[in-house]
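Predict the holo structure. Ligand: aspartic acid.
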Amino acid sequence: MTLTIRLPRITILGTGGTIAGSATSQTQTTGYQPGAISIQSLIDAVPAIAQIATVKGEQVANFRSTEVTSPILLDLCRRARAANESDDCDGVVITHGTDTLEETAFFLSLTVPWKKPIVFVGAMRPATAISADGPINLLQAVTLAASPTALGRGPLVVLNDRISSGFYITKSSANALDTFKAPEQGHLGYFDNSQPKFFYSSASPIGLHYFDIKDTIDLPQVDIVYGYQGLNPHIITEYVRAGAKGLILATMGNGGWTIAGMEVVRQVIEGGVIVVHSHRSQDGAVSSSVDISISSGLLSPQKSRIMLQLALSSGYTLEQTKSIFEI
Ligand code: ASP
């Protein structure tokens, strides 16, 4: 009697980025076109994937990740949720440009129930380069999505032989292959001969908040204002005039903003805009506030922005919003 072993079924959602990038020569590693190669061609370029899983590619988009918008995030969320619910899918891989991968991974951490593995993967060298990192990263991402060890950990990120938390990672270098880091929280695991190995058993990050956005069709505009010596205090009013319903301040240190700037911040808050104080430093937290603004805690400006968009679109009060940031 022959026993047929069914391979795990993995859905790969392609969105572009450097992993799908194409240059005019093998030695060109800057100035190439990201999002030039189809998801099917990326899968076909790694025949070893067929030994690990039965994969199905879906092209969601094919561009540089700077072009990801709220409707695209919502579309990805719908597809990841559908895969989560489907009996024909055991895990999801999302290929993504590294520039804004941390934003999409954070968004899905907050909006997709974690039933099956969701693994983000990118690359720092285009697919046409000598020693392109995309093919091995894709193989490892599929291996991880097919592995029961990935269950209950939320969206994960694979790059450069490392496994990281989609909630915590950030792109730490504009160029280096080991760009994804969570300096305070660390990596969750690594690959040994392309097999995933974890340092810890599964756990949820403190501060993870779930938003049910099944019926959401767009997200409100929230903008980020960068803090620096001599900042123009009135730039904030311009953001509000241009439609911002919320603002994130990338403050200096632990909540620092100029005296003249704070005056304008107070005025926009009184006008109904929600303001979150985040930090321009890579690490550390902004301490809980005692006034009407909100502190981001550990969240970076780009992650605070997503959290605030979700809170606003869910109709949270100021107090509810404060409570999900200031844990
Ligand atoms: N340079 C980017 C990348 O590493 C391009 C992008 O984010 O789409 O994928």
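The mean pLDDT is 95. The pocket of aspartic acid is lined by residues 16-18, 34, 64-65, 97-99, 122, 124 (CB under 6 Å).
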